[in-house]
Design a protein that fits this description.
This is 1,3-beta-glucan synthase component FKS1-like domain-containing protein. InterPro entries: FKS1-like_dom1. It comes from Hibiscus sabdariffa (roselle). It is a single chain. The chain is mostly helical. The protein has 2 domains: 116 residues, no CATH class; 63 residues. A two-stranded antiparallel ribbon has the order 1-2. Strand 1 and strand 2 form a beta hairpin. Helix 5 packs antiparallel against helix 6 and helix 5 packs antiparallel against helix 7.
Length: 198
């Protein structure tokens, strides 16, 4: 998750700058302290909690059979770091933050003091994708429209002149401009489909 990596990087860079400069923390005025070297600290305190969230959510999809609205996928977890909500995680990360709440409602193991607490279910709060028969078209609608109009323009040029030079003939060029009528019709069909779907 690139946004998550940026969040970690900026917090670590700020921490290193604070240690090197020996400046006060913005929250409580204390200075940064260098801890005793611990080779597994970053793995235990940063990587493992994020990995546990990803693993739990990946298992919640039940091999792709669970409803898309019942579990948080890669995009949902990544979107968390797009907003100011990510600053509630703090640094070092607060394992009580809502990012670490799981969508399946199962107990969450607190790695620091080995307690198991039951957490409130964390639902998806952003866009929930509804998978329909139109999903393939909807995902690529601009591409299909471009292909349709390009095919129409190439067919008109080939039918009327047989060479690309014919495109610059004013009568053929007027005929090629009918692709905008085709574009309007395709947009009308798309709007109709969206209206009927809602």
């Amino acid at each position: 998750m690139p946004e998550c990596l940026c969040y970690i990087f900026h917090n670590m860079a700020n921490e290193v700058y604070g240690i090197l400069s020996n400046i006060a923390l913005p929250v409580n005025g204390d200075t940064y302290q260098t801890a005793a070297p611990d080779d597994e600290s970053f793995l235990r305190n940063v990587i493992t909690p994020i990995y546990n969230v990803l693993r739990r959510e990946a298992r919640s999809n039940k091999g792709g059979k669970a409803s898309h609205s019942k579990w948080r996928n890669y995009d949902d977890l990544n979107e968390y770091f797009w907003s100011g909500k990510c600053f509630k995680l703090g640094w070092p990360m607060n394992l009580e933050a809502d990012f670490f709440l799981h969508s399946d409602g199962l107990p969450f193991a607190n790695q620091r003091n080995n307690q198991v607490t039951v957490r409130k279910r964390k639902l998806k709060v952003n866009f929930v994708e509804a998978r329909t028969f139109w999903h393939l078209y909807r995902s690529f609608d601009r591409m299909w429209m471009f292909f349709t109009m390009a095919f129409q323009a190439m067919l008109i040029v080939a039918w009327n002149s047989g060479s690309l030079r014919g495109f610059f003939d004013k009568d053929i060029f007027r005929k090629v401009l009918t692709i905008f009528i085709t574009a309007a019709f395709l947009n009308f069909l798309q709007g109709t489909r969206l209206f009927l779907a809602s």
